[in-house]
Amino acid sequence: MAALCALPLAFAAAPSAHAADPTTMTNGFYADPESSASRWAAANPGDGRAAAINASIANTPMARWFGSWSGAIGTAAGAYAGAADGRDKLPILVAYNIYNRDYCGGHSAGGAASPSAYADWIARFAGGIAARPAVVILEPDSLGDYGCMTQAQIDEREAMLTNALVEFNRQAPNTWVYMDAGNPRWADAATMARRLHEAGLRQAHGFSLNVSNYITTAENTAYGNAVNNELAARYGYTKPFVVDTSRNGNGSNGEWCNPSGRRIGTPTQTGGGAEMLLWIKTPGESDGNCGVGSGSTAGQFLPEVAYKMIYGY
Questions:
Q1: Residue 108 pLDDT
Q2: Catalytic residue among 141, 180, 244, 287
Q3: CA distance linking residue 275 with residue 272, whole number of Å
Q4: Cα-to-chain-centroid distance, residue 29
Q5: Per-residue pLDDT tens for 207-256?
Q6: How far apart are CA 61 and CA 33, in angstroms?
Q7: What distance in Å separates the CA atoms of residue 135 and residue 90, rounded to the nearest whole number?
Q8: Strand extents, DSSP E, the chain
Q9: Active-site residues (predicted)?
Q10: CA 38, chain centre distance (Å)
Q11: Among 264, 261, 260, which residue's Cα sits nearest to residue 248?
Q12: Average pLDDT along the chain
């Protein structure tokens, strides 16, 4: 695998928790017909930006995010995985409901009411997907920023993630789960390798990078390889990784919250220096009340931001 080519041959990738490969069980990735970009384009056909947003964003396979807004999570995840399965496509789902979510950043604060509530939620999430093929990105940001957390809170978070992997392994045998590992500018590779391992990475299929960020694929790939080198040296295994390319076409200008001048990146596909390049964040969805999204809330679709991101200005 390209992502692992720099590693000594003595260190083979740790086997996936599942034998099944969901990419071979399906015919391409699922484009969410109910994404915020799709809904906006359908509701605003006369808008001069609609055609470009529909062509360049709405019809690109990307992830659907699930959290407290999703209602009965087992039903919601099952319906989405089932809709994709009915079209023989592979869905990408994001679990984003961990207790004390975005505890240090705050723009996306929220999540389950308690660790036990999260355990119930994630168990229902996995049960909803069941045997259908799927890709799951597990809790973006959860391992990226420990700066304001006590050791007890860190231990609690890692235990929640480990338990989540247990549930997917038990209930969703055809799902590849990627633990989120932040981005190259958040924690050094050795630190991230330790956090991933302590949170149960050995039980996951792999890890994800750059979710909702803008950093180039090349920088993320170098970081993913560095994390794998640390995993190999410290723990004797490596894992495949995926990169969110939805908004990294122009790279990063150092700002993470609705920066101007960004551009959509390589569409969802396998390979590309990682196991897969995925659109995990929907281009045009706000990062919060900041930057060119001033006055918006996190997750709100901003058509002007989306339109400009298509062309890189």
A1: 76
A2: 141
A3: 7
A4: 15
A5: 999 999 999 999 999 999 999 999 999 999 999 999 999 999 999 999 98
A6: 9
A7: 7
A8: 64-66, 92-95, 134-138, 175-180, 206-209, 241-244, 269-270, 276-278
A9: 141 (proton donor)
A10: 19
A11: 264
A12: 93
Q: Tell me if residue 170 falls in helix, strand or coil.
A: helix
Interacting residues of 68 by C-beta distance below 8 A, sequence separation 6+: 97, 110, 111, 112
* Cα–Cα distance measured from residue 208 to residue 187, given in angstroms and rounded to the nearest whole number: 14
Is it the case that residue 11 has pLDDT exceeding 60?
A: no
- Is pLDDT above 60 for 9? no
Mean pLDDT value across residues 38-49: 97
Averaged pLDDT, 284-313: 94
Residue 8's pLDDT is 38
Mean pLDDT, residues 269-290 taken together: 95
Q: Say how far apart CA 150 and CA 144 lie, in whole Å.
A: 14
Q: Which residue has the tokens 């470009």?
A: 52
> How many C-beta atoms surround the C-beta of residue 151 within 10 A?
8
The answer to whether 141 is a known catalytic residue is yes
3-state SS, one letter per residue, for 245-286: CCCCCCCCCCCCCCCCCCCCCCCCEECCCCCEEECCCCCCEC
Three-state SS sequence of 89-108: CECEEEECCCCCECCCCCCC
58 residue type, one letter: A
3-state helix, strand and coil shares in percent for the chain, rounded to the nearest 5: 35, 10, 50
Mean pLDDT of 133-157: 95
Q: Say how far apart CA 261 and CA 122 lie, in whole Å.
A: 36
Burial status of residue 47 (CB atoms within 10 A of its CB: 0-12, 13-18, 19 or more): middle
